Amino acid sequence: MLTPYELSADTRKRMEIMTESNDGFVIAEADLKLRGPGDLEGTQQSGIPFNLKIADLVRDNAILFRAREVAENIISQDPKLSQPEHLVLKQQLSRLGGNRYDWGRIG
Question: Which residues belong to any copy of the ATP-dependent DNA helicase RecG domain (predicted)?
Fold first, then answer.
């Protein structure tokens, strides 16, 4: 890797991270913490009209992973969300995008 002689604080931190680990997941997580999430869920990158308005991808990492685990369990047990306890979830997902997306594969 080549850099100019004088480095910004962020560039220096990125270089340190990449010399300390060769694990792409560790590097990506550290980079996310440095730069923030950007427009990760916006229509610009994913094409899905869905925004995280109540969560911060860095700060709320643990709860977002837990929510994903719960969602995966629900989808694996009831892929069509036909059980009565999943009716509200099915209605909300329909409101967000109808049947245009396979919500079980997102993320």
Answer: 22-106
Q: How many domains does the chain have?
A: 1
The CA dihedral of 5, 11, 26, 36, to the nearest 10 degrees, is -170
2 part of a folded domain = no
pLDDT-derived band of residue 73, with 50, 70 and 90 as boundaries?
Answer: very high
pLDDT digits (tens, 9 = 90+) for 12-62: 888 888 888 888 888 888 887 777 665 544 444 444 444 556 677 777 888
- What is the DSSP annotation of the chain? ----SS--HHHHHHHHHHHH---HHHHHHHHHHHH--TTTTSTTTT------SS--TTTTHHHHHHHHHHHHHHHHH-TT--SGGGHHHHHHHHHHHTTSS-TTT--
Domain assignment present for residue 45? The answer is no
**pTM, full prediction:** 0.46
